Amino acid sequence: xxxxxxxxxxGRFHSGQALGAALGVSRSxxxxxxxxxxxELSLPIxxxxxxxxxxxxxxxxxxxxxIQRFSAGEHWPVRILDSVDSTNAEALRAVDQGIDAPLLVxxxxxxxxxxxxxxxxxxxxxxxxxxxxxxxxxGGMRQLEGLSLVVGLAVLQVLREQxxxxxxxxxxxxxxxxxxxxxxILLELVGDPAxxxxxxxxxxxxxxxxxxxxxxxxxxxxxxxAGKQVDRNQLVxxxxxxxxxxxxxxxxxxxxxxxxxxxxxxxxxGRAVSLIAGANQVDGVVLGIDQQGAxxxxxxxxxxxxxxxxxxxxxxxxS
Length: 319
Hints:
Elements: H1 2-8, H2 16-23, H3 27-41, E1 45-48, E2 52-55, H4 64-70, E3 78-81, H5 87-96, E4 103-107, E5 129-138, H6 147-161, E6 167-170, E7 174-177, E8 180-191, E9 196-205, H7 222-226, H8 232-253, H9 259-264, E10 272-277, E11 280-289, E12 295-299, E13 302-306, E14 312-315
Helix pairs in contact: 2-3, 4-8, 6-8
């Protein structure tokens, strides 16, 4: 079925006879595979008598050789999957199996993609970027301080390279364009953070997605913002290069070396917000972040710092 998809990925019309000849099957077998493609991957296929079959839009399928061709910087060993429950889950399984890190896990789609606080990450086939990098961390907690914020800066720079000047950061792990989410980050850790551990840097970027009814918040994509389809292999290469640069800066100077740059790109700097932790809510004004990446809020007349994976930040109505 995926072989058929590769024949159709250019977005042009292909006759049933030509497709059957390329696959070595009958035209009726081609028709059955096309029905499976539509049903299983939710890919609309146009059928025109006398012209054949055409995807509603061209597809940019992930390819290791193409990623390497675009790579000018960091290029990690990569595992590309057609479908997986979650690239982060696959990365964690790889750690359990004793793989050597670093390892990059990519997928065309996720059947159970997840974001922070257990939220679903919508993951249509071959439209977006589902990217999980496994790193081995030595040297204790200092190498983990503010790490998700560092990853956010790398993602932001890639989006800026795509011409999305309005993209900015939202503490702790989101990249927004205005109020619309375009990317998110989920870090997961295995091992002893005080000694030697593995961390999975999970990154989801809305790339070529143009419509969906599954997302429960305002969203956008690179294609919607830039007005053109994006080559996801090139985007992987750009992201790996930026990530390599920022990780090296973090390793050498700690998060303190990147703190000011992150604050300069925080969309909610100086804004009135509500910080939600379960049933508890703290109202304050964003002052910035500290040298460990914790959020600094002015609560009344007092400055307080907050950190943790289960916190949610929202703009107040009067902000």
